[in-house]
Amino acid sequence: MAPEEITDPADERVADFRDLVAGDRPPGVERGTGPVIVEGVPAVQRLLASPYRVRAVVGVPGRLAELDLPEGVPAYEADKWVLSAVIGFRLTRGVLASADRRPPEDLDGLLAGPDPAAPRRLAVLEGLNDAENLGSIARSAVALGVDGLLLDPRCVDPLYRRSVRVSMGHVLSLPIAVLPDWPAGLDRLHAAGYLSVALTPADDAVDLADIDPRAHPRTAVLLGAEGPGLTPAAQAAARVRARIPMRSGVDSLGVAAAAAVAFATLR
């Protein structure tokens, strides 16, 4: 079906996309709620292949034709000026989609995975307060064999528009769960057979390359926020504290880069 034309920025059919600069969510929508917003053709294609239910798609002329939209998905077309007025900024990617949120995964189900005997890797994030860092970590996780994200209660919303955008939509394919009892709840990972590895630049930590992934088929990599890193309590609760060896004079990597190195090393 041909997309319906939108000429009025106040049209209620595109209400999901209104004023997205206001905290990455429409006005009046509480943090961590409301629709998931996805930008760009590649990311929207990943949304369409994900388990998230698509609510609507809107784009400039020509971009919607690049998508293989399933029957029943509302599609709207607007010129770049109307679309900019709706969302509150100039969109360079040409297309947006909204989707219903999914509830967090059952924690025990995430820890077990489809096959409780199979090797498994998780990324465990503490206090990560930057949505773009989280999106970059999610993209590396999918690329480098991580099977899910486990968040402490203070982490930024992994489904913020900026997180989804930086992940190129890959965060939508990752199971995500919250560990409410932090960091004591890490014992649930240990009981499920995971070796928890806390990343830190501390000199007394072991070399990350010394951890043999074949000897530890289930590994959970703990990462803290940019700057402060993991709290002492989280490091104490982990089984291993590990560092990425670097040239002298460089104290640490950014958390997204450190995550990618760790995921690749522990594949």
UniProtKB/TrEMBL annotation:
Domain tRNA/rRNA methyltransferase SpoU type: 123-263
InterPro entries xrefs: Alpha/beta_knot_MTases, Ribosomal_eL30-like_sf, rRNA_Methyltransferase, SpoU_MeTrfase, tRNA_m1G_MTases_N
GO biological process: methylation; RNA processing
GO MF annotations, alphabetized: RNA binding; RNA methyltransferase activity
Record keyword Methyltransferase present: yes
Pfam families listed in its UniProt record: SpoU_methylase
UniProt keyword Methyltransferase, yes or no: yes
Keywords from the UniProt entry: Methyltransferase, Transferase
Protein name per the record: tRNA G18 (Ribose-2'-O)-methylase SpoU
Record organism: Trujillonella endophytica
Lineage: Bacteria, Bacillati, Actinomycetota, Actinomycetes, Geodermatophilales
